[in-house]
Amino acid sequence: MRIYERYFARQIYLTFLFVLFAFSGLFFFFDLISELDAVGKGSYGFGFAVIRVALLTPSRFYEIIPVAALISAIYVFATMAANSEFTIFRVSGLSTGRALGSLMKIGIPMLFVTYLIGEVVGPYADQLSERVRLEALGSSVSSNFESGVWVKDTLTNDGEGRPVTRFVNVGELLPDTTITKVRIYEFDSQFRLSDVRTAERGRFRGPDHWALDDVTETKFQNVVPNPSDPKDALNPVYRSTLIHLPHYLMRSQLTPQILSVLLVSPDRMSIVNLYSYIQHLQENHQDTQRYEVALWNKLLYPFAILVMLVLSLPFAYLHTRAGVVGIKVFGGIMLGMSFQLVNTLFSHVGTLNTWPPVATAAVPSLLYLVVGLIGLLWVNRN
């Protein structure tokens, strides 16, 4: 980096850390207040509430980083403009293009940190936070159905060379990803019911097996009627066999990561888990719109940092008479909040109207990038 770039970077990074922790502290306070309703239930005390909210902090960092980058850069450039420092840089030969390029260099480390938090730290901390809460409350996780969550599981080869389609009903998903009250309806290649299994509990045995305990299996077999017998609609078409097994190892495409969708919302899942779950839904011919939008948001959201830095640069060209530093920072806060609002709005509207996921995720950033470039052209001409 050149000397002026190191100066810009030091000022922006220090202000960025201050703004980031200030905003996260504010969100920590609000999140803690919202958790107070659950305090006192089971063994969920105030200490558990603090731990849970603290574990949510990385995800808050992920959400706040673009806005914090915008506010910190605006504050630094507005202060430089008020002290005529940026004017001196311009007189010394700093063009708008070079200043913009320098800002992109400064934003790249922030971009990588955002990816690290969003892909590694955040999802793991969110799942751990949910487990802490559920274990303290003595609860389990299930879907909105009283019968639990239903998942389709399709295998081209069940280990015996047969294609199998299953509908799996999981009554409860415990915080340690153990499943209980499991019912499995298995169909053959002709979509005829061939097996019904019930199990008290199950544990995942990688890479693609579930170990089920206390299994009751009902097998259905075709009964070929005797040609000499008179036709009777009441004659049985199937013969059933009831088997009880203490343990059963079932091959399946379902994984705890897929079932963990119940524990963490799509917006807080990692890119790898989202992609895996989308593949699972596509293989089972289910709607993937919501998860594809979340996936593209995860891929493109860190680049919003660079867009925010572009938006901040025009503030360096505004002289003190155009407004004091505080007003410019307030404008930056409003600009950052409007970006978050538009980004969230596009995600929901795009999901409802089945817009292309790439466009749904990219349009807000592109709109604000255009606004930033127009602002640069205007201040450069004036």
UniProtKB/TrEMBL annotation:
Pfam families given in the database record: LptF_LptG
Gene Ontology CC: ATP-binding cassette (ABC) transporter complex
Source taxonomy: Bacteria, Pseudomonadati, Pseudomonadota, Betaproteobacteria, Burkholderiales
GO biological process: lipopolysaccharide transport; transmembrane transport
Bilayer topology term: Multi-pass membrane protein
Transmembrane portions of the chain: 12-33, 64-82, 102-125, 299-318, 325-346, 358-379
Domain of life (superkingdom): Bacteria
PANTHER family assigned: LIPOPOLYSACCHARIDE EXPORT SYSTEM PERMEASE PROTEIN LPTG, SLR0882 PROTEIN-RELATED
Subcellular location: Cell membrane
Protein keywords: Cell membrane, Membrane, Transmembrane, Transmembrane helix
Protein name according to UniProt: Lipopolysaccharide export system permease protein LptG
Protein's organism: Pararobbsia alpina
